[in-house]
Automatic annotation (TrEMBL):
Domain ABC transporter: 12-249
Gene Ontology MF terms: ATP binding; ATP hydrolysis activity
Taxonomy, superkingdom: Bacteria
Name of this chain's protein: ABC-type sugar transport system ATPase subunit
Keyword terms: ATP-binding, Cell membrane, Membrane, Nucleotide-binding, Sugar transport, Translocase, Transport
Length: 332
């Protein structure tokens, strides 16, 4: 077990923090240091304490003991508004946008440009246009109503809201790519790299290992509410990271098992997303869990959208229990 802290001055530091919910010790004696211009990944199995840690760090939950410091100054009353004002921003998986309002109103919520109590719509739109362009979101219309936007765009609007906050020193991302395709995730990761280049300290939580390796500089692994390991991501492989998370060897995770072979439930033959994409065949039998692997951007999520019928295919056949089904593409 090795715990190494990143070099450099801490922008935000948690020191020996503990938190219990009744008899469940969600965090015990956890320390974490975030430095400017670094993406710090937080890893751990479900229930390891990741969300509890970030809720303490953003003021949504109160710690039982331990310290929280920003720029080496102790934060005594850690409420969400105190921490936001100090520059600690968060992007959650569950979005905080108001669906019936426009993109611009959401991005500048709570700080709309106004005169004599009236919102200056033109100025609001212009400022939002600049903010969206800065983030490379040139195709997003500031006047569009949020509820009609695709999930990925909503997530990016959420990022725009954080990026335009008055102070941005730390941004916490809690599983922001869960609902995104690989291409959409790539775009978000690109955005995070820009924040890093601008000197923001980033805490990044994802259950996608390859994403940690794509974006992370440092990793801290929690196990059962305790610090398991911490160090540069370049010191880890997927196997050693998994071992740190689960506490046993990876080989022990997949013991040989005898099972009877059942009939084919889902059969995909020669499926092509576009005329140029390679044909894909796969079979899932009853009682089987079929895993689909691949790197970021390799088309895993897109394949599932094709099989599910939400995206059209250009060639191939999908059978369920032997009967051909014809997905018609997205509904009206
Ligand atoms: N509000 C809560 N009330 C009771 N137990 C909780 C609460 N939030 C989290 N826990 C428990 O604390 C532990 C850590 O949870 P969590 O921080 O959500 O882990 P993770 O985000 O790593 O999956 C789990 O055992 C979870 O059941
Ligand atoms: Mg969680």
């Amino acid at each position: 077990m090795t715990i190494v802290e990143p070099d450099g001055a801490a922008v935000l530091e948690l020191i020996d923090v503990s938190k219990a919910f009744g008899t469940v010790q969600a965090l015990s004696g956890v320390s974490l240091k975030l430095v400017a211009g670094q993406v710090h990944c937080l890893a751990g199995e479900n229930g390891a304490g990741k969300s509890t840690l970030i809720k303490i760090l953003t003021g949504a939950l109160h710690r039982d003991s331990g310290r929280l410091e920003i720029d080496s100054e102790p934060v005594t009353t850690a409420t969400p508004s105190v921490l936001r004002a100090a520059g600690v921003q968060a992007v959650y998986q569950e979005l905080s946008l108001l669906p019936h309002l426009s993109v611009a109103e959401n991005v500048f919520m709570g700080r709309l440009p106004s005169r004599s109590g009236l919102v200056r719509a033109g100025e609001l739109r212009d400022r939002c246009r600049v903010a969206l362009d800065d983030l490379g979101l040139v195709e997003v219309d500031p006047s569009a109503t949020v509820e009609h936007l695709p999930a990925a765009t909503k997530q990016l609007v959420e990022v725009a809201k954080v990026a335009t906050a008055d102070r941005v020193k730390v941004i916490v991302f809690d599983e922001p790519t869960t609902a995104l395709t690989e291409a959409e995730s790539d775009r978000l990761l690109e955005q995070i790299r820009r924040f890093r280049a601008a000197g923001v300290a980033i805490l990044y939580i994802t259950h996608r290992l390859e994403e940690m390796f794509a974006i992370g500089d440092w990793v801290t692994v929690l196990r059962d509410g305790e610090l398991s390991q911490s160090g540069p991501l370049s010191d880890y492989t997927e196997d050693t990271l998994i071992t740190a998370m689960v506490g046993r060897d990876v080989t022990a995770l997949y013991p040989d098992e005898e099972r009877e072979e059942r009939s084919e439930r889902l059969t995909v033959t020669g499926l092509r997303r576009t005329p140029d994409s390679p044909p894909i065949d796969l079979v899932a039998r009853g009682g089987e869990i079929l895993g689909i692997g691949g790197l970021l951007g390799s088309g895993r999520s897109e394949l599932l959208l094709n099989i599910f019928g939400s995206d059209p295919i250009t060639a191939g056949e999908i059978r369920v229990d032997g009967r051909v089904v014809r997905p018609d593409g997205p509904g009206p």
